[in-house]
Amino acid sequence: MYQYKISSIPEEGCKSLDIDRGNHVARVMVLRQGDTILCYHNICPHTGTNLDWMPDQFLNASMTFIQCATHGALFRIEDGYCVSGPCAGQSLFPVEVKVEGDMFEIKLK
Ligand code: FES
Fold this sequence. Notes:
Oligomer: single chain
Strand order of the largest sheet: 1-9-8
Bound molecules: FE2/S2 (inorganic) cluster
């Protein structure tokens, strides 16, 4: 189980997590919008590269979209849908998250 405190994610912010799965490391991004926690694989659907330009840096300057560091694609925070860029119309790969009290659990398949 991969459980974390909600308070470990900055409010209205995001964090990258590398989760050791034994035979590989899953790289995910976790976003917090108030009490809502969202999670996606840290993989751009355009080329498969990481989205962040620095650790924990995933959002555009106005903090309104997830922005890929490589070619600038913009993804909606709430569902990972790409609204602009070379992979427009595609989506980030979601990761299931379960929130319980002040903790959240990442459910990788
Ligand atoms: S690698 Fe993300 S937009 Fe090209």
